[in-house]
């Protein structure tokens, strides 16, 4: 039996929103309300077994009215976050938010036909598994093993939707089964410029069994004339909570400096793809919350480049799957999207997150 770990009052608004989304998926009616959060908070306070709640700084016993206000704030910020997600994603968001009544409703299970909803649910469930929000990990071990492959497909679609161009799924293991240098040659033959070293022209000391060189996504947008000097993105996928310990920037320098005799471009855009909302670990601030999120993006950009989080990936992957067939053929992973659909369906069945 898979259960959802309860939240606590120290969780961020994003973590609380994830928890309520999971609860809504599990509910037989597909509905969660403010009472869902208030009830679990009451249970957690009871389990704390403290006769009186005290202020951490002053040591004074807190008035019940203060505690009640904190509970309502706990609920308010959660529904603000849910509304934010719904406003950004529109029909790609698999839930309907009623902020006035503080009610979250699961959309009918027709998401197999809506790429954005599939991608969002994949990212939500993958995040919950990585965070251990879904307990009974042994039941989800197979699903966890397949997260990386499915996430790379979602990331490729997001890159394709963002650039409206070509995408090479370069991360290891590759669907084609090709080795590092072969895959590099194939990618840059599509790119149209850049000369990859021959096998007998590898300088002594360079790795001889490289998998992907820390690079998962290579994407670009061609000009009608096919000439050099184009939008060129190189990205890495990180489906775990330690994504900030990784950056593709150093790998880009190694790629261009070590494996080409004629580099494809001087300038490229680094990117990071994560299944969590970017602001997942940002707590409440005194000022406007979105100002804190904006400042954090600005702070992290020098290290990671363009950060594609759950919301951005959902939006742009959905845009990519809406492209004409001739466009989608340029994006690796479009032909394997059924793997993501299957992962979401089987994981929901295993975790009991389906309609009764």
Q: Specify the overall morphology.
A: elongated
**Main sheet properties:** 5 strands, mixed
| Total domain count | 2
Q: What's the helical proportion of residues?
A: 40-55%
The N- and C-terminal alpha carbons lie at a distance of: 15 Å
Query: How many runs of DSSP E, i.e. beta strands?
Result: 12
Average pLDDT metric: 89
Seen as an oligomer or otherwise, the chain set is single chain
Which regions contain 5 or more consecutive residues with pLDDT less than 50? Answer: 48-52
Rg over C-alpha atoms, rounded to the nearest angstrom: 23 Å
Please write the string of helix (H) and strand (E) elements: EHEHHEEHEHHEHEEEHEEHEHHH
Q: What is the tally of helical segments? A: 12
What strand line-up does the widest sheet have?
6-8-9-11-12
How much of the residues is beta strand, in percent? 5-15%
Structural class by helix and strand composition: alpha+beta
Describe the protein's architecture and organization.
The protein is an alpha+beta fold and 356 residues long. It has two domains: 3-107, no CATH class; 147-336, no CATH class. Helix content is 46%, strand content 12%. The protein has twelve helices and twelve strands. It has helices at residues 13-26, 34-48, 64-89, 115-130, 141-145, 147-163, 180-191, 249-258, 289-304, 310-321, 325-328, 337-351; strands at 3-4, 31-33, 95-98, 103-106, 134-135, 166-169, 195-196, 217-221, 231-237, 260-262, 269-273, 306-308. It has a five-stranded mixed β-sheet with strand order 6-8-9-11-12, with helices on both faces. Strands 2-4-3 form a three-stranded antiparallel β-sheet. The longest helix has 26 residues, at 64-89. The protein is elongated and about 65 Å long. The two termini are 15 Å apart. Mean pLDDT is 89; it is low at 48-52.
